[in-house]
Amino acid sequence: MTLSEVKLGLCPATISKYVVREWGLAFAREAMLSARPVGPLELKALGVISQIVEKDLDGDGLSRALDLYLAKIKVAAPKASSMCKELVRLEWKEAGSPKQASGIKALFDEMMKADGEAALGLQQFQSGVKSPRWDELLLSNPIRAKL
After folding, report:
1. Is the overall model pTM greater than 0.90, yes or no?
2. 135 with 84, same domain?
3. SS3 annotation, the chain
4. Residues 61-88: pLDDT tens digits?
5. 63 inside domain
6. 11: domain range?
7. InterPro entries in the record, alphabetically (predicted)?
8. How much is the pLDDT for 141?
9. Which of 23, 108, 139, 147 could bridge to 28 as Cys pair (CB 3.0-4.6 Å)?
């Protein structure tokens, strides 16, 4: 990717709000000012992208990588995943505000419910299961997580 608009006397006005948010202020500024190519390895090193999948001859590399990633995230409890997304959203939009504090408290209270997903996860952990199979547990248990 290259933000080469500056070479033409332009700036990347439309995309800048996304680039700055995802790449970080200092890196985005340098990339915009220098108009240099920014490759996938550099973006991966920054944490902007999580994985690079090489093109392979049979064309199944992306499918295999996706299957492996889905298997990784299958260990996460659905409600806890949703709550993590909300924590990040609160940090992004409400950082340091009373709204962030009340949002975190609400998430904590939800997490600590006696009949919630966390109770089931802790029960599994205490019985020796280090990584519950959430898909199976939630199908066989009356506790239902909202996605």
Report:
1. no
2. yes
3. CECHHHHHCCCCHHHHHHHHHHHCHHHHHHHHHHCCECCHHHHHHHCCCCCCCCCCCCCCHHHHHHHHHHHHHCCCCHHHHHHHHHHHHHHHHHCCCHHHHHHHHHHHHHHCCCCCHHHHHHHHHHCCCCCCCHHHHHHHCCCCCCC
4. 888 899 998 888 888 898 999 999 999 9
5. no
6. 4-52
7. ClpP/crotonase-like_dom_sf, Enoyl-CoA_hydra/iso, Enoyl-CoA_Hydratase/Isomerase
8. 61
9. 23
